[in-house]
Amino acid sequence: MQRVEEELTRLIKEIDYDEVTKLFSMLSGGKRLRAKLILKIAGEHKDAPLLAAIVELIHGASLLHDDVIDDAMTRRGVASVNATEGSKMSIMLGDVLYSKAFTELVAFDKEIARVISSSVTALSKGEMMDVKMAESFNTDEEKYLNMLYLKTATLIEAAAKASAILVDKDVQKHALYGKNLGLSFQIIDDILDITSDEKTLGKPAMNDFVEGKCTLPYIYLDKVLNREESQRLKSSHAKNISASEMEWIKTKMQENKTIEKSFELAQQLSNEAQVAVSDDKELVGILETMIKRSY
Ligand code: FPP
Ligand code: MG
Question: Which domain holds residue 172?
Answer without folding.
Answer: 136-295
